[in-house]
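Collaborator request, handled under Task 6.
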Amino acid sequence: MKKKEIINILIILLLLAFSYYRFSNKTYSINRIRFVMDTQVEISIITKNQNTNQLLEDAFSIIDFYDNIFSYYNTNSLLYNINHSDSLKNKINDDFYNVLVLANDIYIKTNGLYDISIAPLVDIWDFDNDIIPTEEKIQQAIQNIGFDKISFDEHYIYLPEGMKINMGSISKGYIIDKVIDFLIDNNAKEAFVNAGGDIRFYSNNKRKWKIGIQNPRDRNNVIDTLRIDDMAVVTSGDYERYFINNEIRYHHILNPKTGYPASHTASVTIIAPTAFLADALSTAAFVMQPDDAMKLINSFPHVQGYIYINNSTNGVSLLTVDN
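Structure tokens returned to the collaborator:
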């Protein structure tokens, strides 16, 4: 074989190798927003899988599956049926049990300020119509609150008569993690899920994601900008569902001890390894006194907290916790 022929063969082999490299490393991206879990949910995926549409549909199907477990208002959900059951003892599944375990842990660590049995109180506050419940109704609701009155194991939950639970402050994060786990298992190179501002990021190339924390007193501006890696970011604030009455801000994050909205804090942003933990901690820290909230955040490894507290000039001041 002549030298020129050998060179031509080598060139062809190199071109074939380069083409194969490009093909094997080709990625596909897809992004979609849908209204599920009573909020706008955005899923973004970069993957080697050509069938991105099916992957995305499967991801949204996972959300639907878990929403049928944890939804407070869906009459077909497991939670709804437990809350409205004629029996005080009801069967639960593994996912329900997992959420109860973390909720109970944070309930204990916050001395009852984080409490998913707050449902009777949530029911009587009407933020859509700017209605403040009477003191009598608030006190009646408080009588049916207290997670320590509830017992559960891996198979059953016992709810005393008159009690209900609302997992809205924790289940969304649990569902987000389930979606990200599914995408990782299906070879996603990068992905994020944003469910109404509760976000979990994933990247297999150590990407740093840029996020902005909304100014709780100026919806059109961010108050801080952060760069994070594969973590979850969840913010709880007094500016999403609220109304002003006699110069007092009434918002949806309620203190189960007083029956009224928590008043010390304007917003709390938690950065944590899972959306499950970040979701619960953002609510818990919001209801607590800021100094106590910082101690709570410090008790969990690899968790950061940004607490914006109200000050006398109708602005906010920042406290940070960085583990």
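The cover message to the collaborator said: "The mean pLDDT is 90. The chain has one domain: 29-322. Please let us know whether this matches your experimental observations."
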